Amino acid sequence: MTDNRTRHNLRLAIQKEGRLTQQTMSLLHTAGLEFESYRAQLFVTCRNFDLDVLYVRDDDIPEYVAEGVVDLGIVGQNLVTEYGFDVRDLHPLGFGYCKLVVAVVDESDVLASHQLEGGKVATSYPNSARRYFDSLGINVTLIPVRGSVELAPAIGVATAVVELTATGGTLRINDLRVVDTILSSEATLVANPLSYGEPIRRREIDRLLVRLRAVLNAKTHKYVMMNVPREALERVQQVAPGMKSPTVVPLADPDWVAVHAAVREELFWDVIEALRSAGATEILVSPIEKLIM
Ligand code: ATP
Ligand code: ZN
Asked: Which atom of ligand 1 is nearest to the CA of 16?
């Protein structure tokens, strides 16, 4: 029996302070959730949604979600993979991009991972590293380190590292060179499987997901308006497959129409070029605040 009086708000764990924090907050705020960004508290309650936001260390998020301490978490896929807890990956969020790589010192002879056979590899991702080397049948000794992994080769602790990198900047500063990529990661929304399986919770989670998706879609689309000679309309619609359900509006001049459409960012320039050669003129492009599809 569910007692509505004791039924707690939906709970979402996010990183308290770190690389994911700012973009996580900005995503939630843009999705219209109003809450205090003051992180001296352990958790805050949204003013306009039945949601509690918990500020925690990112490493704790997969476990909290799996154990049901919270219903949802926003965390790097790298940590979900590393810890292997049972969580449901609901939606990638388009930020926090990074890669888990194998790297060696610049002057090393090693060009491929198998040349590390019998060697020592420092990492704070022992599970992911172990799975990688095992899958290739490479025998290495893993040296677990917390933080400053990239210093390990310099101080002779290991000949290689398995470490996260986004731009490669930190690796370069430490004279490290990437040998192979183990996995690519971005921040993702994960759910406790029981919460997601329970109808009432599921509805709440889906309500939140609709809002987040609207923001994410808006970020990946542009709104395009253009004038098209009526006789070119069919061609324009054909050459622009990246356009989602274009709206066609008659203009004062009966030979012309206005076409409005959302265009995926990654197809954007291709679509614009195709539109122009198909006869579109006065192409106006603007950002989208929310896009609910
Ligand atoms: P916490 O104090 O919460 O444990 P942390 O120092 O372990 O923080 P951060 O360095 O803030 O964690 O990284 C959080 C996440 O950001 C990583 O797990 C990863 O998903 C992502 N990330 C994006 N770019 C990078 C990068 N260049 N290096 C490390 N992590 C990155
Ligand atoms: Zn951490």
From this structure: 3
